[in-house]
Design goal:
By secondary structure, the protein is mainly alpha-helical. The chain is built from five helices and no strands. The chain has one domain.
Amino acid sequence: MTARARLRSVWTSYRGLPAGVQMWMPLLFGVNLAGFAFLGTEIGFWTAVAIAFVASINLTTMLIQGGWSRLLAFPHVLWAPLIIYIAMRLFGYTAGTVENPEFSFGLMVMVVNGISLMFDVVDASRWLRGDRKILGLEGVIHA
């Protein structure tokens, strides 16, 4: 499969996912990517590190597989320590105030990544039980 065909397959797979998932993924990616706008803060720095790791692993996985699968849930395990770190930072002895943009950003990352983890546990479990198909390509005729 050529690089162009592989990219087309990844895009087709994404577009074949349920609409809710197609809306969720840019939100998840965008919130975490915003860590780069907060690089001067500890929460922003660690969020940027986490998304760089997760995105590089998952993009590589998608390109190798030619689409989206439940295997993509596994790198999201990094969200758990990030959420714990942010919670300790926001609500621990170094707690900020709600008016602080880092505080609001941290809350947003915790909520979005926490929701992601709930879906990821289900997807990882399904993958481990053998559900390894490339999602969104069901019924697509490959040329």
